[in-house]
Amino acid sequence: MAPLISVIIPAWNESRLLASTLEAVSKAHASAAFPFDMQLIVVDDGSRDGTGDVACAWADVVLRFPVNSGKGAAMYAGWQAASGEIVVFLDADLGSTAEKFPLLLEPVLRGEADLTVAKLPPASIPGGFGLVRGLAGRGVRLLSGYDSGAPLSGQRAMRSEVLRRCERKYQGFGAEVGMMVDAVRLGFRIVELEVPFRHRETGRTWQGWLHRGKQLCEVGLTLWQCWRKPAC
Question: How many CA atoms lie within 13 A of 167 on its CB side?
Answer without folding.
Answer: 7
